[in-house]
């Protein structure tokens, strides 16, 4: 008799613990209330990570983008190559960008002075420079040469 009662009691206590335990996460201790202003805000600014350091080291300003156009080492990256009239730095005046993701779209605002040419590797690209009111379109595998050094302001795949 006691074993049936004990089994019933233990089963009931276990079931109650499961039901109450499942409801408990909704009111966890330490959860901030609606008036708590101490929470950090997660805001995606789309700013290029490490842009200040890159500007200091390489003299190019990297602005905002979708994260699918990344500055890389010209020894291993050649999706987009920007040629400049400055022959110093690790890549002797070249700045190479890798397209990540699906490759269907990538964009980045930037400022590179003294650009003499833009080369498209595997992707068709569009480029905006400081003295032309529209876009330069560069088909994949080709290079667009400029008559004089310009400032590149925007790249898009």
Q: Let me know the average pLDDT.
A: 80
According to DSSP, the number of beta strands is: 8
Class by helix and strand content?
alpha+beta
Which fold name corresponds to the CATH topology of the domain at 51-156? Gamma-B Crystallin, domain 1
- Oligomeric state as shown: single chain
What sort of overall outline do the alpha carbons produce when their principal axes are compared?
globular
Separation, N- and C-terminal Cα atoms? 78 Å
Specify the helix fraction band: 10-25%
The major β-sheet equals: 8 strands, antiparallel
Strand content: 35-45%
Element-level helix/strand string: HHEEEEEEEE
CATH architecture of the domain at 51-156: Sandwich
Number of helices: 2
Rg over alpha carbons: 28 Å
CATH domain class of the domain at 51-156:
Mainly Beta
Poorly predicted parts:
none
Keywords: Signal
Protein name: Secreted protein
Signal peptide: 1-28
């Amino acid at each position: 008799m006691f074993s049936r009662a004990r089994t019933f009691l233990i089963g009931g206590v276990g079931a109650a613990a499961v039901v109450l335990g499942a409801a408990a996460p909704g009111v966890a201790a330490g959860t901030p209330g609606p008036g708590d202003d101490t929470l950090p805000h997660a805001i995606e600014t789309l700013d290029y990570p490490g842009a200040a350091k890159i500007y200091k080291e390489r003299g190019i300003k990297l602005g905002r983008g979708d994260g699918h156009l990344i500055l890389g080492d010209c020894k291993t990256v050649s999706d987009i190559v920007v040629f400049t009239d400055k022959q110093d730095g690790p890549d002797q005046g070249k700045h190479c960008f890798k397209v990540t993701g699906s490759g269907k779209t990538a964009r980045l605002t930037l400022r590179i002075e003294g650009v003499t040419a833009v080369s498209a590797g595997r992707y068709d690209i569009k480029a905006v420079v400081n003295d032309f009111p529209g876009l330069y379109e560069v088909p994949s595998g080709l290079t667009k040469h400029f008559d004089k050094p310009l400032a590149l302001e925007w790249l898009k795949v």
